[in-house]
Specification:
The chain has about 425 residues and is α/β, with parallel strands linked by helices. The chain has three domains: about 120 residues, Methylthiotransferase, N-terminal domain (Rossmann fold); about 220 residues, Alpha-Beta Horseshoe (pyruvate-formate lyase- activating enzyme); about 60 residues, Nucleic acid-binding proteins (OB fold (Dihydrolipoamide Acetyltransferase, E2P)). Strands 6-9-10-11-12-13 form a six-stranded parallel beta sheet. The chain has a five-stranded parallel beta sheet with strand order 2-1-3-4-5, with helices on both faces. The protein has a five-stranded mixed beta barrel with strand order 14-15-16-18-17. α12 runs parallel beside α13. The radius of gyration is 22 Å and the shape is globular. It starts with 6 loop residues before the first strand and ends with a strand.
């Protein structure tokens, strides 16, 4: 029987885009070409990249592993089951293997560089690499994630990331540029920069204006239509960075994702965030320099010690700030964090009520903001065909980040994934737009 020409893989990446990048690097670095399959029963390798950031994410990861175990047990030929990522890094192989003995190999985040070799050995594959650049894109032809750093130098009281992924470790500018060129050669028109804190890029390399110096090299790349920044730590959004975004022009998008977490200085201080002043000052600075900027943020409700007074402050801030995009999370006490040991933990029903209150406010803000675009023309980057409606595609306008914000439904002649078309905005809803080419 001739040797197979492909390695059949069923893969699942949970959690943040940084996990997706790790998965893409692994699948592009194995010693034979990968063929993705939709059913576990057709796979030689089942690869699950887990999230371990908060308890609900851990539960989702465990469910995914158990589901894969269940399906694999029915297969005529059992695939190799590999589990990787932050859940493995957080709890460790010995503890997880005791509860999930069906998993064949565990891949902690601290050994990412060894994942291809570890899997090749477990699968009995040759160690001669095929002609691969080391990354297999899974996001389609319109956009790609570009991870610029690992770990985090911040020590927020609620966060498990530094204990899982370690301190900040910036990728070199040359490596980032090399990967950016490779990604653009595959066809995507948009690159989305991600890290735990993108504003810290280069701090560990001794670069004072690290992120700006990196952006200067990225904005001149050929075939790059949109360059988007995610995960900007508030104190890292400096006047210099805002000025650069203003003057850089295309492809630099005036889109700022700034996870503020809260609006009251007392809660920010309890969170261990040095940015413990009034965040209105930051928004004023952003809008003074970039009045057209799209702003996205996230807030945490029910943090230990959050009183009705603190929440009222946050509610008023959301009403006044009128963010383009807003995510709200109920605080989760995570084992090993300083916040988990704090007094005055809020009841779950209080957290949920506060979450729903903020999201109701934001829904109305988003509906009003999007209605203002109806009747105007905007470029739409087309992502994919709609899975249910022939002729309809999903895409995004410049103020919609992939997999995070709303989408734009688009139809018309010449519409296909990966193209950017000027379209008429004809309808809006709470979070989405409809456009015609």
């Amino acid at each position: 029987m001739p040797a197979p020409r492909h390695l059949t893989v069923w893969s699942l990446s949970l959690g943040c885009p940084k996990n997706r990048v790790d998965s893409e690097h692994l699948l592009g670095s194995l010693p034979m070409p990968v063929k993705s399959v939709r059913h576990i029963g057709r796979a030689r390798l089942v690869f699950i990249n887990t999230c371990g950031f908060i308890a609900p994410a851990v539960r989702e990861s465990v469910r995914a592993v158990l589901n894969a175990v269940k399906i694999a047990s029915r297969c005529k030929k059992k695939p190799l089951l590999a589990v990787a990522g932050c859940m493995v890094g957080r709890y460790g192989q010995p503890a997880l293997a005791a509860d999930l003995p069906e998993v064949d190999i565990w891949l902690p985040v601290s050994q990412r560089a060894l994942w291809p070799a570890m899997l090749s050995s477990a699968l009995g594959l040759p160690r001669v690499p095929h002609t691969s650049e080391g990354r297999l894109l899974s996001t389609g032809p319109s956009y790609a994630w570009l991870k610029i750093a690992e770990g985090c130098r911040r020590r927020c009281a609620f966060c498990t990331i530094p204990s899982i992924r370690g301190d900040l470790k910036s990728a070199s500018a040359d490596d980032i540029l090399r990967e950016a060129r490779f990604l653009l050669d595959q066809g995507p028109r948009e690159l989305v920069l991600v890290a735990q804190d993108s504003t810290s890029w280069g701090k560990d390399l001794g670069l004072r204006h690290g992120l700006i110096s990196l952006l200067e090299r990225l904005v001149v790349l050929d075939n790059l239509a949109w360059l988007r920044l995610l995960y900007l730590y508030p104190s890292g959004v400096t006047p210099e960075l805002l000025s650069f975004i203003k003057t850089a022009g295309p492809p630099m998008l005036p889109y700022l994702d700034i996870p503020l977490q809260h609006a009251h200085p007392e809660i920010l201080a309890r969170m261990g965030r040095p940015f413990a002043r009034d965040p209105e000052q930051l928004l004023d600075a952003v809008r003074e320099t970039l009045p057209q900027a799209a702003l996205r943020t996230t807030f945490m409700v029910g943090y230990p010690g959050e009183t009705e007074k603190h929440f009222a402050c946050l509610r008023r801030f959301v009403e006044k700030a009128r963010f383009h995009h807003l995510g709200v999370f109920a605080y989760q006490p995570e084992e090993g964090t300083a916040a988990a040991a704090m007094p005055d933990q809020a009841p779950e029903e209080v957290k949920q009520e506060r979450l729903e209150t903020l999201m109701a406010i934001q829904t109305e803000i988003s509906r009003t903001r999007l209605a203002d675009w109806v009747g105007k023309r905007l470029p739409v980057l087309v992502d994919a065909p709609h899975p249910e409606w022939p002729g309809l595609h999903t895409g995004r306008v410049w103020f919609q980040a992939p997999e995070a914000d709303g989408i734009t439904y688009v139809s018309g002649p010449g519409i296909q994934p990966g193209v950017i078309r000027e379209c008429d905005i004809v309808e809006s809803s709470d979070y989405d737009l409809t456009a015609l080419a």
